[in-house]
Amino acid sequence: MTRRRATAIASVLTAAIIAVVSLVYTQTQPFKLPELPAITPGYYAITEVIDGDTIEVNMAGTRERVRMIGVDTPETKKPNAPVQCFGPQASEFAKATLSAKHVRLEADPTNDNRDRYGRLLRYVYLQDGSLFAEKLIASGHGFAYTSFPFQKAEAFTALQHQAQTAKVGLWAACMPTFKEGRWQSNDL
């Protein structure tokens, strides 16, 4: 084979390889990672709604129970205690509003970090910026829980007074009483 012929064959083979590589490259889509839902920094995924005033969130791979500051809903799961009037409705309201959502948690500087059961004590904010405890109280699904100090006590008490006056939620369906320094619903 002559040198000229070898050069021509090499040129044709190089052109063919370039053409095939170009064709394959333009025909295939580059690898793309699947799109994940946008999560605002500082928000935590709710892994479980325990009841009306307690949730569980995923904090960096650890499941953490969170008790909402300043609100108390009628009991549904307290050991050795009966289910209270409007407890199931409060739990369902929380589940409907919070399940599979992300929330922002905020501590209160005048309150403890954890309660006697080891749960984090936090305000729970929805992604629209609203405070979930305010929704519970205003809709009559819970009481302002003022037995312990917290910064929003006055606002929560005012919301409860409005719900009580308007007879919404448990204020219409139950017979709440003020016992042992806090409002409680009657047993079912």
Topology diagram in text:
Blueprint: H1 3-27, E1 43-51, E2 54-59, E3 62-68, E4 71-72, H2 87-98, E5 102-106, E6 120-125, H3 132-138, E7 143-144, H4 153-166, H5 170-173, E8 177-179, E9 182-184
Helix pairs in contact: 3-4
The CATH topology, please? OB fold (Dihydrolipoamide Acetyltransferase, E2P)
Report how far the terminal alpha carbons are from each other.
Answer: 101 Å
Number of helical runs? Answer: 5
Overall structural domain count: 1
Question: Helix- and strand-based class?
Answer: alpha+beta
Helix content: 25-40%
Strand content: 15-25%
pLDDT average, as an integer? 86
The 3D shape can be described as elongated
Provide structural commentary.
This protein has 188 residues and is of the alpha+beta class. It has a single domain, classed as OB fold (Dihydrolipoamide Acetyltransferase, E2P) (Beta Barrel). 33% of the residues lie in helices and 23% in strands. It has a five-stranded mixed barrel with strand order 1-2-3-6-5. Helix 3 packs parallel to helix 4. The radius of gyration is 29 Å and the shape is elongated. About 4% of the residues have low confidence.
